[in-house]
Specification:
Blueprint: E1 5-7, E2 13-17, H1 20-23, H2 31-36, H3 53-66, E3 71-75, H4 78-81, H5 90-105, E4 109-113, H6 121-125, H7 133-149, E5 155-160, H8 163-170, H9 182-206, E6 217-223, E7 226-229, H10 234-261, E8 283-286, E9 290-295, E10 305-306, H11 326-339, E11 343-347, H12 358-374, E12 379-385, E13 404-405, E14 416-417, H13 419-430, E15 432-434, H14 435-441, H15 446-450
Parallel strand pairs: 2-3, 2-12, 3-4, 4-5, 5-6, 6-8, 7-9, 8-11, 11-12
Antiparallel strand pairs: 1-15, 9-10, 13-14
Bound molecules: beta-D-fucopyranose.
């Protein structure tokens, strides 16, 4: 049956997403800040003043409102709130209160992240998440933030992509603290499980209701790369299948299993975590790409796997990531089948400095969300990553995920909406992806999407 536009449900949240360290600037008491000073960021930059969101938040919120965006996801930085062990910075928390109040004044649906990878230096110095005390320290920080700012969020993200630092920092050695250790990966994963379960409990104990009077919504923004193999012939292919089996479990299936059943998954081991079972009110999905794991005998440091290659003919982004919209639909389906809980797309987006690929990426991924909605899966909203260009971790400022372009070396950091920002604005206002948009930006798939 042919249709003229992809209509989304009433109250669907059209939002954008950011992380504190990546946009605020001046997060100088954090482990990432310290790491950046060692000159290890690919493009030679440091987060520095980043996008200066810390001071320009009002301007940014006004721009989001002008563009008719409905939601905003932001993070609180632990290192700002507790720069020294046990010393909570009142000025920082009051400043976050002003930021959140401004978002409230603009009537945005607020999604608040308590931990987005970055920790205070003093936590890193005491061994990071490998130190058994760190969970308790995190909970003391979370408790403080919940007490102070708990009235604002509509959605809570306790942890952003906990398995990313567990894998990238402790197993693959690509992020600080650069470990190559299965044992460390497992210990850090268990620490995150405990941190999440207890934070979930704390939020519900202190703020059982969201600002609109309904039950508080607490979850995790989980990274779900779509993992496949390269399909090399012979033993290389067997090894790839084994690697993919492990990678899926290490990246999300193990975590999801533990949340769903309450029983520790073998990939993480350890004793059961109190309160972990069912500790989701919604499932947060961060989805960007497909990874095709390829055996490579030169990559001993990466366990003989290259996960960054795209099969011939597959379009890639500025990050070199494969564009694979179908993976979003497949992820939504499997997460829904696993949990049967409402889904929030907490991140999805593309590094594209020219904005040539982004409109189409946006439309194709929204079409996959629409497809899942049509099948009756409750999806609450979509937070596009990202509102502005920002500091993209170990790759620096060169990779540009923003709907809004900002040159990090522009003294005035002027915000310039890219064409996609206006396209997204129109989508938010119409609550639909229209035929005209699809014809303009993704003409090859008009028939598939609209059923002509
Ligand atoms: C996600 C992170 C986010 C951003 C995007 C591109 O994995 O959560 O901070 O870096 O990737």
């Amino acid at each position: 049956m042919s249709t003229d536009s992809l209509n989304f449900p009433d109250h669907f949240i059209w939002g954008t997403s950011t992380g504190g360290h990546q946009v605020e600037g001046g997060n100088e008491f954090s482990d990432w800040w310290a790491w950046e000073q060692k000159g290890l960021i690919a493009d030679g930059t440091v987060s520095g003043r980043a996008m200066d969101y810390w001071r320009r938040y009002e301007e940014d919120h006004a721009l989001m409102a002008k563009l008719a965006y409905k939601g905003f996801r932001l993070g609180i930085e632990w290192a700002r709130v507790e720069p020294q062990k046990g010393c909570f910075n009142r000025d920082a928390i009051e400043h976050y209160r002003r930021i959140l109040q401004s978002l409230r004044n603009h009537k945005f649906i607020i999604c608040l992240t308590l931990h987005h990878w970055v920790k205070p230096i003093w936590v890193a110095d005491q061994g990071g998440w490998l130190n058994p005390d760190t969970v308790n320290h995190f909970l003391r920080y979370a408790n403080f933030v919940i007490d102070e700012l708990g009235a604002f969020p509509d959605y809570w993200v306790t942890l952003n992509e906990p398995m990313a630092p567990a894998i990238m920092g402790n197993f693959l050695g690509r992020f600080p603290p650069h470990r190559h250790s299965i044992k460390a990966y497992r210990a850090v994963s268990r620490a995150f499980l405990r941190a999440h379960a207890e934070t979930y409990r704390l939020i519900h104990a202190k703020h059982p209701l969201a600002p609109d009077g309904t039950r508080s919504m607490v979850g995790v923004a989980m990274a779900y790369p779509w993992i496949e193999t390269w399909n090399s012939p012979g033993p290389a292919g067997w090894y790839e299948r084994f690697a993919a089996f492990i990678a899926r479990r290490a990246a999300f299936e193990g975590w999801d299993h533990t949340i769903r059943t309450g029983n520790p998954h073998w990939i993480h081991g350890g004793p059961a975590v109190a309160g972990i079972q069912n500790s989701y009110d919604y499932c947060g999905i961060n989805y960007y790409t497909r990874a095709s794991l390829k055996y490579d005998r030169r990559r001993g440091d990466q366990y003989w796997i290259d996960d960054a290659k795209a099969p011939p003919g597959v379009e890639v982004t500025q990050m070199g990531w494969q564009i694979y919209p179908e993976g979003l639909y497949r992820t939504i389906r499997s997460v829904w089948e696993r949990f049967r809980k409402p889904i929030l797309i907490t991140e999805n987006g593309i590094a594209d400095d020219t904005d040539k690929q982004r409109p189409r990426y946006l439309i194709e991924h929204l079409a996959q969300i629409h497809r899942a909605l049509q099948e009756g899966i409750p999806i609450l909203g979509y937070y596009h990553w990202s509102f502005v260009d920002n500091f993209e971790w170990q790759t620096g400022f060169a990779k540009r995920f923003g709907l809004i372009c900002v040159q990090h070396d522009d003294p005035d950091l002027i915000r310039v909406p890219r064409p996609s920002a206006y396209l997204y604005s129109e989508i938010a206002q119409k609550n639909a992806v229209t035929r005209k948009m699809i014809e303009a930006y993704a003409p090859e798939i008009v028939a598939t999407i609209l059923g002509d």
